[in-house]
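*Target chain*
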Amino acid sequence: MLALIYYSESAMIVAWCESRTGSRHFRMDRVVSAQCDVGFFVGLGAALLAQWEVTQKAATVETVDL
């Protein structure tokens, strides 16, 4: 898991998806099951989080005050 995001109506998990080989958003209320793996990556969390932040900023739409 890279991050938890809380919205007023739901919460999201940002995590690495092995099947899509990339970071993905998962709504916590839609997760049916999860498995905690004994082995986990070490040292990549900060880099993956930084990469995720860059992609989110690139996808953000700017608004203009009228």
In short: The chain has a mean pLDDT of 79.
